[in-house]
Amino acid sequence: MSGTEQPKQYVLGIDMGGTNTKFGIVDARGNVLSQGGIKTSNPDINGYMEELKSGLNVLINGVGGIKKIKAIGAGCPNGNYYTGNIEFAPNLPWKGVVPFANMLSESFGVPAAITNDANAAAVGEMTYGAAKGMKDFIMITLGTGVGSGIVIDGKIVYGHDGFAGELGHTIIVRGEKGRVCGCGRKGCLETYTSATGVARTAREFLQDSDRPSVLRNLSLENISSKDVFDAAMQDDELAKDVFHITGKILGEAMADFVAFSAPEAIILFGGLTKAGDLILKPVVESMEENLLSIWKGKVKVIFSELKESDAAILGASALGWEL
To answer: What pLDDT is stored for residue 244 in this prediction?
Structure first.
């Protein structure tokens, strides 16, 4: 290596979920060079940090040591970009406020930043995926819940406290008829348009009618969104109707979101997008039907271009390149 040549640099991306934590080494082109993971379930945050440090060090040593690592980015439940803290996350074993960015920085001696997982996905999409070159878009993650990252003028919207962009907790069905949400309120969008919401809708359809369906061969309480998808692929009319009503509700909500930020595109990401046109067609039709006329035909609705296995790690790592 010549005297002027700089050592090759990488970023660590961490995707912390309620059950598992995944992490990887990412280069400047968005290639995930190596990955690892640990359980998030350690009840002691210091014990968790020891496990995380051990796992990360294996990857760090694989690329030539910490001198090759520029920074660390992490996507975390209730991760606050401004404070670097995980704040009162209901699905994590550590309660209260956890200064996670500081803990990472002190453990490895490099800068660290965190945000919530949907914002990390939006940053990743803008840096490496379908939103490359876009300055105004909304990322909606359709998994166990519904998350969102809002990008305006090339910047994530964090709001004054770091928690902006909770579109999954906009109320879509008001009053007592709304479904109870994990957040404690009723009628939130995620109770209808998440993978969990799809399964709930299927159970309601089966309970409220005598319509034939292959889903009736399954245990009602154990029906999953994948079961509904598999049934729809067998041309099961009830299952197809579940996706239609799910898409209709999501499209109506997206028409309202457009009025807020006039995005160039809304990008859908997560397990539910595997349903393809079953979900996309009713979403687009419903959104267009409910849009203010000035936006009709102007907003693209597209699926993420990031590989699902790499997406959260890529999104988190993209934060690190900004440090």
So the answer is: 98
